[in-house]
Amino acid sequence: MLNEIKEATDYLKKHGITNPEIGVILGTGLGNLFVKEIKNPMEINYNSIPHFPSSTVEFHKGKLIYGDIRGKKVLAMQGRFHFYEGYSMQQITLPVRVMKILGVEQLLISNAAGNMNLKWKKGDLMLIDDHINLLPDNPLRGPNYEKFGPRFPDMSQPYSAKLNKKLVAIAKKEKVKLHKGVYVGVMGPNLETRAEYRFLHRIGADAVGMSTVPEVIVANHMGLPCCAISVLTDDCDPDNLKPANISEIIEIAGKAEKKLTRLYVELIARL
Questions:
Q1: CATH assignment at residue 59
Q2: Per-residue CA distances from 99 to 76, 81, 159, 161 (Å)
Q3: Which of 110, 116, 128, 243 is the most exposed place for a label (fewest CB within 10 A)?
């Protein structure tokens, strides 16, 4: 893994990606408006970067974009990788390690998630305050490299309280409804059954998705402060569950992207 990370990092440095300050991971349906905010963008396709997986999900564009937002150097992933695509946890999280080594100091994450809190509505945003990891593997399994972080990293506060506090203040200023809740990570790619939604909500989750948790674990392992916002794209009420419509999920994510972009652009300006 060390050689793979070094080769990917060296490649990006040789192609002009130097001293990024803020890393961004853009999730399902959330990679368009934010990218337009990046000034003087430089794009590199994932498949040209040594050891980077290729994004196999059609609505994940598979590009690394480097440029400026509000005077800050930003390195954004336009599309991410998922365990259900067949990649290992180490492959999924390799970009996070590369970002940190390149110089990223804060990591901003987004995703599309199913809403299990019946007080909320699809199209709303949820600031992730904590998570439950139900994925069948862990990116830290195997040999530990002390240069990256400790064998047993603390996860008492996986999402930066400082970043979350800033986002709550920005949402209030921008008049954007921003819930705070718990995200549960599952493998996918199938969506959940009625019984599974009941179970996930009873154990404390407000939203469910198939990403984010591995990246957050690795960010914490490396001492990289992070925050994450879920776009709630479908209502998961087990007593009134309708068949999932993926096109509608993508459409709702796209509509909510404007609000998410406002929050993250303003956050970047304040960092």
A1: 3.40.50.1580
A2: 10, 15, 17, 21
A3: 243
